[in-house]
UniProtKB/TrEMBL annotation:
InterPro entries: DUF1499. This is DUF1499 domain-containing protein. Keywords: Membrane, Transmembrane, Transmembrane helix. The chain crosses the membrane at residues 9-32, 44-66, 78-98. The keyword Membrane applies. The lineage of its organism: Bacteria, Pseudomonadati, Balneolota, Balneolia, Balneolales. Pfam families: DUF1499. It comes from the Bacteria.
């Protein structure tokens, strides 16, 4: 008796699943590699990967119904691949979409809203960035207060020199792309971080200063995205992670 051929529905499901995951990955890496602009990634590739993933998922369902009438129909492995890839794509896009709804549309976060640390060495590196280093208006400052009330100046019961050394050691522990400048005399540390996938770059400036007495110091941090209106909470999380590292020194 002739062996049953692998179902075309199963092969199609796997094929569309592979296309979906490749499209999803290229939405980010293609932008990072300057193959196309951000508009192409967000307008076409991300939605496209979701649609193709949905097609792969639907074809897997069709195979399931077809197999009820032909139990010996081959292709379960291909269908499993299609399902896994399609769910991964739709889950990833859906997750980040939902995350974006949780956070305010701001990209400049600082521990000192009234007198935020200023970038110096980083400024030339942001020459072509859509977002400048000018701190936002009071409306944006109030938005930060409402959404990130725990982002505050860190006070340490140590002298300035010790505080700066701790600040620098913590910065060196961070998985940031590069520390651009260290100026102990001015109390400034500047760095930038490159995010995976899309390769978005965020800049960080750390300011160390004395507090009320010579034996007490304070550390302020500012983290700003070079592109994008919102940041999905990345800058606030980076500041919190850094300050925790300082406290643990």
């Amino acid at each position: 008796m002739d062996q049953e051929k692998t179902s075309k529905w199963a092969l199609a499901s796997a094929g569309f699943g592979i296309i979906a995951i490749i499209t999803l990955l290229l939405a980010g890496y293609g932008y990072q590699w300057d193959w196309w602009g951000l508009g192409t990634s967000f307008t076409w590739l991300l939605p496209g990967s979701t649609i193709v993933g949905l097609i792969a998922f639907s074809l897997a369902i069709v195979f399931g119904f077809a197999r009820r009438n032909s139990p010996n129909k081959k292709g379960a492995g291909f269908v499993a691949l299609g399902l896994i890839l399609s769910l991964a794509v739709m889950g990833t896009v859906g997750y980040w979409y939902m995350e974006a709804q949780k956070y305010p549309p701001i990209h400049d976060i600082t521990t000192d809203i009234e007198n935020p640390p200023e970038f110096r060495a980083i400024v030339p590196l942001r020459a072509d960035a859509p977002n400048d280093t000018t701190y936002g208006d009071q409306e944006k400052a109030q938005t930060q207060r409402e959404h990130y009330p725990n982002i505050e100046t860190l006070y340490l019961d140590v002298g300035y020199s010790v505080a700066f050394d701790r600040a620098l050691a913590a910065a060196q522990e961070m998985p940031w792309e590069e520390i651009v400048t260290v100026d102990k005399e001015a109390g400034m540390i500047e760095a930038f971080d490159r995010l995976p996938w899309f390769g978005f770059i965020d800049d960080v400036v750390i300011r160390v200063d004395t507090a009320e007495t010579a034996e007490r110091s304070k550390i302020d941090v500012r983290s700003v995205s070079r592109i994008g209106r919102g940041d999905i909470g990345v800058n606030a999380h980076r500041i919190q992670e850094y300050l925790e590292a300082v406290e643990n020194q």
